Amino acid sequence: MHKAGFVNIFGKPNAGKSTLLNAIIGEKLAIISPKVQTTRHRITGVLTEPGYQIVFSDTPGIIDPKYKLHEKMMGAVKSALEDADVALLIMDAKDSLEENLELFESLKLKVPVILIINKMDNILKADMETLVARAEAWGKAKAVVPVSAMQKKGLKELMAAIVALLPDANPFYPEDTLTDKSTRFFVAEIIREKIFQLFEEEIPYHTTVIVTQFQEKQTLTKITAEIIVTRETQKAIILGEKGKSIREVGTLARQDIEKFIERKTFLELFVKVRGKWRDNDLYLKEYGY
Ligand SMILES: Nc1nc2c(ncn2[C@@H]2O[C@H](COP(=O)(O)OP(=O)(O)OP(=O)(O)O)[C@@H](O)[C@H]2O)c(=O)[nH]1
């Protein structure tokens, strides 16, 4: 019998959700950054193997709804909770187990749960064994699996634990589907990732990216994107002296986009100032939140 189901990943910011999803799907789908809270959308990757199909979703890190944007992120967490067949709760091995369990309890999950202890490469084997035993004593997880998402360790054990909990069902997507999000979305995420890499703290959090044009030409793909910031001063920083910084964003993003869409790409970037987009419902809708 074929198995198929929806599997959602939850965890505190920086626990390694995006890294794990990428390690499993084997394609760069979610963006990864050492800064917290980079994942704002539900990102779905589809894994099709002989005998089973898993539709994965990477939800935003769990945080307080300080801004409207954050409320939308919590909304995404809740809606993901409601439609999952299996929930993967992930924590950093160096983080407090008690705190994480308290957080996971507060989600009031009604679906089967697998507790993943990530970053096993960061702690001693004996300490990990003790941690796993304490996590198992919680009693609410069907399995406790230590992994290193970064080093792709423990993934086989994790997959076996997930498949064991999947319902019998036919595949939801055709075999070659990687994701149900549009290419445009990933292009915008790649550009946003570069902004995270190149600029300090506050800039990335005040920035969003929209792809305004995506044209397949004969020899290349022409993409136009707008980088939306909240203040003129931020615009000046992103542009840089004589446009040096924005060119750097463009070059790095273009290289990754070309790898992702497997086509030569012409990328054009504009920076626009839209005050308070994070608190404005209309903008949030326009930008896909
Ligand atoms: N040492 C180690 N670091 C890891 C591992 N997995 C992830 N990381 C690092 O932890 C940081 C956060 O990883 P992400 O995958 O972006 O975390 P996330 O949970 O998706 O974070 P948000 O998007 O903020 O919710 C990055 O710097 C990763 O490189 C791991 O197995 N070992």
Summarize the structure.
By secondary structure, the chain is α/β, with parallel strands linked by helices. It has helices spanning 17-25, 68-82, 97-106, 125-138, 155-165, 183-198, 202-205, 232-239, 244-261, 281-286, and strands at residues 3-11, 43-49, 52-58, 86-92, 113-118, 143-146, 208-216, 221-229, 265-273. It has two domains: 3-165, P-loop containing nucleotide triphosphate hydrolases (Rossmann fold, 3-Layer(aba) Sandwich); 183-286, GMP Synthetase, Chain A, domain 3 (2-Layer Sandwich).
- Main CATH class of the largest domain: Alpha Beta
Low-confidence stretches: 31-41
Number of helices: 10
Number of strands: 9
Give the distinct bound molecules. Answer: guanosine-5'-triphosphate
Biggest beta sheet attributes: 6 strands, mixed
CATH topology label of the largest domain: Rossmann fold
**What would CATH call the architecture of the largest domain?**
3-Layer(aba) Sandwich
Mean pLDDT: 82
Region (G1): 11-18
Family: Belongs to the TRAFAC class TrmE-Era-EngA-EngB-Septin-like GTPase superfamily. Era GTPase family.
Subunit structure: Monomer.
Region (G4): 118-121
